[in-house]
Amino acid sequence: MKRHMAILLFAMLTGLSVLLNCSKQNDIKTIVIGGIFDLSGPTSDVGKEYAEGVIDYIRYINEKGGIHNRKIELLYKDCSYKISQADSWYEELKNKNVISIIGWGTGNTEALAPKITADKIPFISASYSEKLADGNKYPYNFIAGVSYSDQVKIALKFIKNRSKKEKPNVAFIYNDTAFGRSPFFPGGENFADNNGINVSEKIIIPLTGENAKEKLMLMNAEWGIVQQTATASLAIINALKKLNKAKKLILLNWAIDENIARKIKSAGSLEIYGAIPYGVWDDNLSAVKLLHQINKKYHPEIHKRSCRYIQGYINAKILLEAIERAGDNLTGENIKKKLESLQNFDTEASFNRVTYTERIHKASSSIMIYELMNGKLVPSSQLLISIEQKIWEEY
């Protein structure tokens, strides 16, 4: 009899606990998410505008009533592109019980990935590292565009199609960080070897762009693929112009934007292309038009934006869509499942659709090639280029 009473009491207490937990979820008045940005470090030249895209879109959604009548609170801090600062802020965010995080760079996101997995906190990064897209190894990391490895493969595919040489010579131009190396080793290098492209030079230039002219003086390759942010990218372009080298450059997504295009205006003897996985400020996309309105409302003094602002919006848009689909069940596990449920999801700010699976956490494998012409980024005659989705055989 006592045993039956104990079982009954346990069942009643368990049921009460479930009811209390459900009630607690239904009583959530604010959805708290985290942000890790670079607002003052070596990648702040692109990080500030990205952060503003995230912040402004969340503000806009809150003014429209939030998600299921719940306001979104974004707790963010500047990590200055330092792994130690990102780690410290991540621990604070975890203690504040954020349900997900919008993050920043490759180095700090890769360093945090094991913790993110253990803590089951969905994390959408501004990094496009192929490692972070492996849903088996890092089930709570997601990237919102085309991975760096796929970007360089697409760039190499573009070069192969455009070059008149049977085996074109290509230089990899990058900074010696996890971000800088990510596209090329091993993915880009292996792809070049397997597709009749000669990687004849590997040119390392720091994020500051220091000594770019000296480093590029001996560049012999006809084509260069650049993995940098704005400061170094401008230094590279200006150095090649001064050296009067007739080169063709493909700048991967962080190395090219409208701010760079406006400063360059004339490319001189260079041909400059951008591999960009989202829309640019002049594109006729509905969400880009919305972002024009949002920017005008919140920043009337800023008349022109770049794709960095759009990029921040896209990361926030994807995460908020998953949170909305999660309803009252705002656990990390459920938000992860809702992210993985996105199939051909249209952010309306890109020519790509977002598709995740349990195994593949990169949003797309296609990219738009733009050309820098007269201070603007215009779609190249060869538009959307795709690379086959990875099957993660090496993992």
With strands numbered from the N-terminus, the spatial order across the biggest sheet is: 7-6-8-9-10-11-12
CATH class of the largest domain: Alpha Beta
Amino- and carboxy-terminal Cα gap: 55 Å
Give the total of domains.
2
Structural class: alpha/beta
Q: Average pLDDT, to the nearest integer? A: 91
Q: Report the uncertain regions.
A: 5-26, 390-395
Helix coverage percent: 40-55%
What overall geometry do the principal axes of the alpha carbons give? globular
CATH structural fold name of the largest domain: Rossmann fold
SSE ordering? HEHEHEHEEHEHHEHEHEHEHHHEE
Mind telling me which CATH architecture of the largest domain this is? 3-Layer(aba) Sandwich
* Strand fraction: 15-25%
The main pleated sheet reads as:
7 strands, mixed
Number of helices: 13
Using only C-alpha atoms, the radius of gyration works out to 23 Å
